[in-house]
């Protein structure tokens, strides 16, 4: 095969790609777990937290903040 063709991939490059994908997957799992715990702790306050965030954004856009 000619160097630089589509099928020419080193094993080390594939292992690096798999390692990066696994690290991303683990980070997403950890962040999801933390957000799940945080959401469970806030419980009924979640809609209020959303309203506070929306109000802050609107105030920032209207230059009141």
What does this protein look like?
- With 65 residues, the protein is an all-alpha fold.
- It has one domain (11-61).
- 74% of the residues lie in helices and 0% in strands.
- The protein has 2 helices and no strands.
- It has helices at residues 11-42, 46-61.
- It is elongated, with a radius of gyration of 22 Å.
- The termini are far apart.
- The model has no long low-confidence stretch (mean pLDDT 81).
- Pfam families: DUF7554 (PF24431).
Structure keywords:
membrane; mainly alpha; DUF7554; transmembrane helix; 65 residues; 74% helix; transmembrane
How many beta-strand runs? 0
How would you classify the helix and strand content by structural class? mainly alpha
Through-space gap between termini:
62 Å
Assembly state: single chain
Overall geometry comes to elongated
Order of helices and strands: HH
Number of domains: 1
Strand content: under 5%
Nearest-angstrom radius of gyration? 22 Å
The main pleated sheet reads as: none
Q: What are the low-pLDDT stretches, counting only 5+ consecutive residues below 50? A: none
